[in-house]
Design goal:
Helix content is 20%, strand content 34%. By secondary structure, it is of the alpha+beta class. The protein is flat, with a radius of gyration of 16 Å. The strands form four sheets. The protein has a three-stranded antiparallel β-sheet with strand order 3-5-6, covered by helices on one side. The chain has a two-stranded antiparallel ribbon with strand order 1-2.
Length: 118
């Protein structure tokens, strides 16, 4: 999980059988121990709540890209609230298709430096 590391990973998920080994580590079949929710399970959102969730998703993606990780499977089902509380932290999950890339700085037309994958 980008930004969260392995802190609490084994406390939250039970790792089952190994599914495969790849360039980025080992993939396990895992089940959640906690009572988290995927974004779509919460149903309808107010405009303010939807904006907050969207802001968090963009921040997670920015953090991953800053660290050279491209998720490549972004969809609502791959974002999980830590628990069922209204204020629960949002986590990105399922990095099975992710790849590492080297971020490089480029200059935009406005003169501002931005990060871009190479």
């Amino acid at each position: 999980m980008c930004g969260g590391g392995e802190i609490g990973l084994l406390a939250t998920y039970e790792l089952g059988r190994e599914l495969g080994r790849g360039e980025f580590g080992v993939t396990y079949l895992s089940t959640e121990k906690a009572t988290g929710d995927v974004i779509v399970a919460r149903g309808h959102y107010t405009e303010r709540a939807a904006a907050a969730v969207t802001r968090t998703i963009v921040e997670v993606i920015q953090m991953c890209h800053k660290h050279g990780v491209m998720h490549r499977d972004l969809k609502p089902e791959n974002f999980l609230f830590e628990n069922k509380k209204e204020t629960a932290p949002l986590k990105a999950i399922d990095f099975g298709l992710s790849v590492f890339f080297k971020p490089v700085k480029i200059k935009a037309r406005c003169g501002k430096s931005i990060l871009h994958g190479s």
